[in-house]
Design goal:
The complex is a heterodimer of chains A (292) and B (257). Chain A has 292 residues and is mostly helical. Chain A has one domain. Chain A is 72% helix and 0% strand. In chain B, strands 6-7-8-3-9-10 form a 6-stranded mixed sheet, sandwiched between helices. The radius of gyration of chain B is 19 Å and the shape is globular. The two termini of chain B are 31 Å apart. In chain B, helix 6 runs parallel beside helix 7. The chains are: A mainly alpha (292), B alpha/beta (257). The interface between A and B is large, with 33 and 43 residues.
Chain lengths: 292, 257
Amino acid sequence: MEYLAGTIILIALFVILASSYNLIIGYGGLNTVAHPIFFALGAYTSALLGIHAGLPMAVCILAGIAVAVLVSVLLAVTTLRISGDYLLIASLGFQLGLLQLINNMEFTGGPAGLSAVPNTFVGQGRGTIYVVICTLAAIAVVWAIWRTMNGPFGRAVRAMRDDELACAALGRGLISIKILIFAMGCGAAGLAGGLYAYYFQYISPEQFQVAQSAQILTMVVLGGIGTTMGPIVGALVLVALPQAINFLQLPNSLVGTVQGLIFTTLVILFLFLRPGGLVGHTGSQSSHGAAH
Amino acid sequence: MEPILRIDNLCKSFGGIVVADHIDLTISAGEILGLIGPNGAGKTSLFNLISGVVPQDAGKIQLQGRDIAGMSLHNRARAGVARTWQHMRLFRTMTVLENLMMGPRDYPGESLLGSVLGLGRVRRAETAAHAQAMGILERMGLAQTAETIVVDLPFGQQKLIGLARALMNDGRLLLLDEPMAGVEGSNYETMQRVVHDEAAAGRAVCVVEHNVGFIKDLCTTAVFMAQGKILQRGTVDELTRSRELTELYFGTAEDAA
């Protein structure tokens, strides 16, 4: 049961990560690779507060979201004014630099990480409680993104992605739109981080490597970039598949190879056969929300 | 007539190329002013300077007495500068209606919180923008295209949608960059009628066109530009009769009659 709960929780957390990453790169067209570091900021902030300040779980997680949002706004304000390509480089530097800092600071536990995150729920039902919390959090994040992207704000975001100059010439402040979606997406990553820290009670820098961006991006692309359902499907497939492969009881030396083969084959197949992803449109009519 | 746009001593150069050379220009309410001149005269550059796409080097730009020269592109739109683009720049993944609903210059619905929570004033703004958009589309006979993805429309209708989107901005200045190029038949007549109606309703309209025939159909007065300078202002007939200007113009563009 605990194993199943763990899998469902991972899926829920990756739904949050993939949906929020999709908000930033899919809807917003902002190319960043720094998503894992905001996941880490949420995780470390709530873990540290939980360990040292003994605050309630909800307060710690909210603080984690706040820190992720605050830092994302700082990064956005300094880089978004320049240009899209600049953000990619800046976000890479930010991701690597901040993780290196976490890796070398004493209060973050260095490479060993933090392993004494308080256990909020004890006993048989712990897994189930976290399944409920994480699933509700995922639903809330997906709902908020769906709602935003299908309303007037989302229309402005899609207009900006289609043509920045025309959008600005209609009176829309692009910088504020970009900062808002960046903050919203990074805040959601912070939420996933807080939940991750509290459920697994152990976090270390290697769980938030830049390579995780590629994993989350694969979920987004596989499911369907710029769609609501895409990241959900993508997260489901990419978390469940490795677990399914584990059930095949392959020799340990083979598991990694088989996983790698399957993932790369999937990505290549999708690029050729369904560039819009599992739920995306394949024709010329690209995604557009119904705004009424 | 009430002056809407007033430009004094506007200057701009890119490196050694002068696109605006001490330009003075006033456009009044109800006026449809044509900008004519050879390629590279600085007509579109003047639009870009007025709307704030590029900053000027020197000079004053006043909109209804308010200095807008220091404002950013989006703040000038909010101040009341509406423009179209030579290559339309429509939002290609969006429907006609969604394109138009990006047009209102001040729009509370586009705040993130208001959008998520669906606040009352956001819903009212949506309803008002929707009604305004449908009204403009009906005037153009394009109401049935509202839910069509904009790039699936024929070229002439896309040009009209470009104008319709600009008209969602209820400011007093309207800049049209080659609105007639490639537009034929009933779409041409619609374009002409709507532009005339907007001027009659009190907008100051400025039009860049290469084709002098279009300018004659559309404009009340015109200015002739060359090398970033305004050489002469007058009626379209006066300008086309001037031998000096015709030589400047037809010397570079044979098909402009």
